[in-house]
Amino acid sequence: MIHISKNKCVGCGLCIEKCASNSIGIFNSIASVNQSDCMQCQSCVAICPQSAIMNVKGSLLVAFGTDDGVNIKTDNHVGMSKYFHIWIYENGEVKYREMRENIKYKEDESKTHGDPGKARATASALESVDVLIGGKFGPNISRLKNKFVCAVVHGNRTITQAVDILKENINEIMEEKCSEEKKGRVLV
Ligand code: SF4
Ligand code: SF4
User: Does the CB atom of residue 53 touch ligand 1 within 6 A?
Assistant: First the structure.
């Protein structure tokens, strides 16, 4: 699926000239692809001077830290979430898969922030997960980011809002997943 990063696009319009199927338009100075018309030819990918266009392939398992199954946890680090809502990203769509209980979070309350055991406890509830999204990360982000793409959503957001933010930032998430240097990705 062809995806244009709103963070990188400057609205120059070069991709529109290149697109034989007229699948790209500019809205509010940012390019966007009409997926139903796109032929996946990838001519637009190479022409973009901002590297804003990406052919996003494959699927990602994404975990959202939450206490109530509705809102992203914001009053403490993501590892202290009672639950992880697990969603799957595939072909531009994000679908709910399951809720996992973070059964070890209570025993970790006695440990200090940044304790390696705490990072291991968080990771044990996240088997097969590619991306971990929370409202806050502690010092253990330096360990977690080696196992997951760690992404922060700022403010009080619902999981549904965070899913939309994930979709908007999928290019950056995919780039981070493939990158050797794991930075820890901040969303909005
Ligand atoms: S070529 Fe790149 S920067 Fe220019 S409008 Fe298209 S996506 Fe945006
Ligand atoms: S992949 Fe091809 S058809 Fe699709 S938007 Fe880019 S140039 Fe147009």
Answer: yes
Residues in the chain, pLDDT under 70: 104-119, 188
CA-nearest of 162, 165, 164, 168 to 70 is: 162
In the chain, the number of structural domains is: 2
Tokens of 169: 């930032």
Structural domain of residue 14, as residue ranges? 2-55
Q: Which two tokens stand for residue 86?
A: 């697990």
Query: Does any ligand 1 atom lie closer than 6 A to the CB of residue 126?
Result: no
Phi and psi at residue 54, to the nearest 5°: -140, 140
Half-sphere exposure of 161 (CA within 13 A, CB side): 15
Query: 142 CA to middle of ligand 1, Å?
Result: 33
83 plus 107 within the same structural domain: yes
N- to C-terminal Cα separation, the chain: 23
* CATH of residue 81: 3.30.420.130
pLDDT tens, position by position, 45-58 = 999 999 999 998 88
Domain at 7, CATH number: 3.30.70.20
